[in-house]
Amino acid sequence: MVNIAVLGYGTVGSGVVEVVNTNGARINQRIGDELKIKYVLDLKDFPGDPVQDMIVHDFDTILSDEDIKIVVEVMGGIEPAYTFVKKCLLAGKSVATSNKALVAKHGAELLSIAKENNINFLFEASVGGGIPIIRPLNSSLTADEIEEITGILNGTTNYMLSKMFYEGADYDTVLKEAQANGYAERNPEADVEGYDACRKIAILSSLISGQQVDFEDIYCEGITEITVEDMKYAKAMGTTIKLLASSKRHGGNRLHAIVAPCMLYPEHPLYNVNGVFNSIFVHGNVLGDAMFYGSGAGKLPTASAVVADVVDAAKHLNRNIMTMWKQEKLKLEDKADAKRRFFIRFKGNEDEMLPRLQDSFGDIEIIKAEGLLGEFGIVTPVMMEGDYVTRANIYREQILHMIRVEG
Amino acid sequence: MVNIAVLGYGTVGSGVVEVVNTNGARINQRIGDELKIKYVLDLKDFPGDPVQDMIVHDFDTILSDEDIKIVVEVMGGIEPAYTFVKKCLLAGKSVATSNKALVAKHGAELLSIAKENNINFLFEASVGGGIPIIRPLNSSLTADEIEEITGILNGTTNYMLSKMFYEGADYDTVLKEAQANGYAERNPEADVEGYDACRKIAILSSLISGQQVDFEDIYCEGITEITVEDMKYAKAMGTTIKLLASSKRHGGNRLHAIVAPCMLYPEHPLYNVNGVFNSIFVHGNVLGDAMFYGSGAGKLPTASAVVADVVDAAKHLNRNIMTMWKQEKLKLEDKADAKRRFFIRFKGNEDEMLPRLQDSFGDIEIIKAEGLLGEFGIVTPVMMEGDYVTRANIYREQILHMIRVEG
């Protein structure tokens, strides 16, 4: 018998209980032992609920029970999750979590405590929900130097951008719709400002570099400035706009990490990822291109990943699965040194401005979008972002918006 | 030091050497020890080649060397690969292989020998080349009942069908082109008849059921009958034609497995997989939909997967990683009991035949393709394949072709 405790009976926590109840027989077969949820920690009682007899209100009940070998943390947020998880690991209990904020901030430390105690700290569900990506990076793509990892890591914003692109809807309308459908929170900041995607790419960047990447160090731009007009230009260019979270290697162990809306051409593997789905593109120096696609959020997909971690923890009781993620901080490449093309919208007349713009930006492409008068767009050649900033500065009165072009 | 031997210095074998040479430092870091290729078994010598001093011609040199803890088998074919691999496992050496024929036929037995000897038999590269799919099925999707696994598992036929669809080329022309580009063998049978994809879906079916699925039991239809005309109908329907290898659960542990060209709508996750790429769609009962995409073949992608298995074997010396695949044979669902829609091309006039066809097949959809006179197509409602066969039998003189419709 492998006894586990679940910290938090919210969406993911109740999903974990449901997954264990639904697929228990198969799960036990895979573990080679019987999995049993002994406690569910929550502030509330749930009379009439299948878990009513497992509910405890005091974390110390779980901590002090030596039967509990694995703890599932699905409360979210840094505290008290961090304190609880650390105590569990120090007490020799493995932990599986879906908490991206916790993992992004304290992942390296918690992994090192798990290693010292010969147990495991697992967090597959913290990035890409049900999509297996952490374990593949950790144990499948081990013959490669990962040169790029770029993902659509936030379902809310992808749903919104898909609606804006395919239906021509504006930002405020799609946000209200996303809120009405339960895809966006009442306070949508974490999604629409890119913070959620930023924590996730910080975790992935730490894993591919083996060092701590702080999300605060990653340049992060959300989708709040994307307009109906921008989408018209995107269509005129044959592109779409996606919120990409990306980390690219720039020689040695230096990464350029960024979260920003980007224009993507149809050839890009992430172009067709629509709605609430997530997808993660990986380029390895010998593997070449690979992509992982699935539900990035949702009760059951996320719970599926958490329970898979529980299975792995149960198969590795008293045996640490090595994860390379040192606490030593990685210095990220300066955004100014990243090379790409830029789409820029200008107020004014393209014929009048063209000679000056060519002088500033070189061999540019002019983009006109249907129905948009008194403005035009250009696409620059590949240049360093620092150079773009210097040159764009001259035109700051005329520039309406800039969107990065991927590929 | 972890000493390994490579059996076979062909395309994949030389790729394995190249990957170890290129990414050695990173690989050693992941293993926590130094990986060294001590022997390469081949019939030929390779004077001037970096491996010239490692070449041995006698398998027994490798078998009797106790330093060799891991053996890479990349010779292909059943014999002598099977004899060599079995001897290695019995001698306590873990084996990593890319050999789908070997795995499909003897996987269950070789896994069981590995388990008894507390070592590992790993075969990530046998399906989907560089795409991680075996290990994710085995250790990531463990909280789910996998209800469907459907893949584009053969790059050669996908390249050919993509060319036929996008360029309107005919089968013979694209086959010659594929052969000229090195994508198809001079004898293309294994690819175009679907046998390669069939061995791969047999392996995946065994893994999701935990029992032996023989590829000989799987209905297998290749792409040799797909014509320019079929592609015209596919376009008229807004679909494309892909060679799908598929295994679907029909209640309990019964699978319906099939390899056949299918018409796919743009909403299907595999619709956009073009050229030599492979992709594998998985539906889990709690995970929902997921998809894995990448290079299904090629020297370095395949070698990347083989070396990742070597890393895993090196991290699990004397410790078996459990894989559920018993030798007990799984009885597959009869093809006649599988339900789907069918596209059927008829000789004749649709107005004349419509009443009779409606009588036979129910609520059908008529499809006309540009420029095709004296024939037409229909799409049937969802029906059992057995019923389709009975009804189609009445029209066997008029039926030009049948293609299954997916989704």
TrEMBL record, chains A, B:
Q: Where does the Aspartate/homoserine dehydrogenase NAD-binding domain lie?
A: 8-124
Name the source organism.
Sporofaciens musculi
Xref: SUPFAM superfamilies:
Glyceraldehyde-3-phosphate dehydrogenase-like, C-terminal domain, NAD(P)-binding Rossmann-fold domains
In this chain the Homoserine dehydrogenase catalytic domain maps to 132-311
List residues binding NADP(+): L7, G8, Y9, G10, T11, V12, G13, S14
Q: What is its EC number?
A: 1.1.1.3
Q: State the protein's name.
A: Homoserine dehydrogenase
**Pathway linked to the protein:** Amino-acid biosynthesis; L-threonine biosynthesis; L-threonine from L-aspartate: step 3/5; Amino-acid biosynthesis; L-methionine biosynthesis via de novo pathway; L-homoserine from L-aspartate: step 3/3
Entry GO MF terms: homoserine dehydrogenase activity; NADP binding
Q: Where is the active site?
A: K200
